[in-house]
Design goal:
This protein has 435 residues and is α/β, with parallel strands linked by helices. It has 17 helices and 14 strands.
Amino acid sequence: MRVTMIGAGYVGLVSGACFADFGHEVVCVDKDERKIRKLEAGVMPIYEPGLESLVAENVKAGRLSFSLDLAASAPSADAVFIAVGTPSRRGDGFADLSYVYQAAEEIAQVIDGYTVVVTKSTVPVGTGAEVEEIIRKTNSAADFSVVSNPEFLREGAAINDFKRPDRVVVGAEDERAQKVMRELYRPLFINETPIVFTNRATSELIKYAANAFLATKITFINEMSDLCEKVGANVQEVARGIGLDGRIGAKFLHAGPGYGGSCFPKDTLALVRTAQTHDAPTKIVEAVVDINDARKKSMADRVIAACGGSLEGKTIAALGLTFKPNTDDMRDSPSLDIVPALQKAGAKVRAFDPAGMDEAAELLSDIEYTEGPYQTLEGADAVVIITEWDEFRALDVDRMKSLLKAPIMVDLRNIYDPQEMVEKGVEYHSIGRPA
């Protein structure tokens, strides 16, 4: 089938490359000329394991290409996907749908023959209906259907998530559209992937509900970690004890500095605003948003306490800046709250992240960036692990102690064993676990 993907960002590029790998003919369209030229040269605009080789293979096979011109591919496409950004709107927290609606207008002007228009972007309930109305107003003669097909991609594991998903959700209002979507995802039927067909409104809400539920699990275990610290319990054992219950599950029960990234912060807030608009407030999700914001802001206090109550004139080594490993994404990362708070308390911050330092440099100021974890430790008064990259999981403790002024580690991701660290002479602080 022929697919046009509007938006060559994270979702559009990964989805387009994977559809091409399924055997479809895909054109990724974007207005950013610099991004398109980089892609044509084989340079990825984002960090995602396996993406560069996947793109290269499908470009070479002639199934994947990139363009600035929507009119060159959309008229012949069986499906046109909208995969543009929907950031939180400044001031009120609603999803900013301006890019989605602009894409809808542009699609209406160029489609020719029956076309399925698919919203892949994360959008509030009712957006599909609005997209349909925009297309009809712009081109009353257009023959089309509007479908909701939300993405469930985890940064760092996006290709596997697309090719081996837990489920595919399709919100379609007519059989013609369902037929096209079945054909697009036909390769997944071999893996017996559940394809959930529903109406558009339900599909749109499934995406928000899923992210809000996962964010709630993270926030719940973070609150349990605070209680564990007060009563001498171990949050990792609590998480395992409850996660073995099939009704609960072990995933997303890892205590830490709070969730961040491109999805959870904006999607939970957008769900709250949508629910309030429809007079059906989601009190649990509202609490999750507030608790998570406060948690990220409080993490620097743990570092200050570990350093004796003052950071004035001290150097703190920060390992990891992105919101999670295997991505260069800095959006709503806990480090954006932690690092400025450390600096405000008087500390000089020296940092290393395997992929996110270029992005971090645009968002954080007065940081000394290094070429590796051990260079970061040299002469620092303490080290704080903010992101659990694999290369931070097996640091040479003796070497670390020799480089630090004082053997103080604040592990906000619980990647080391407290007893082992204490036995090795490290003053070790973690989340929700007794030393």
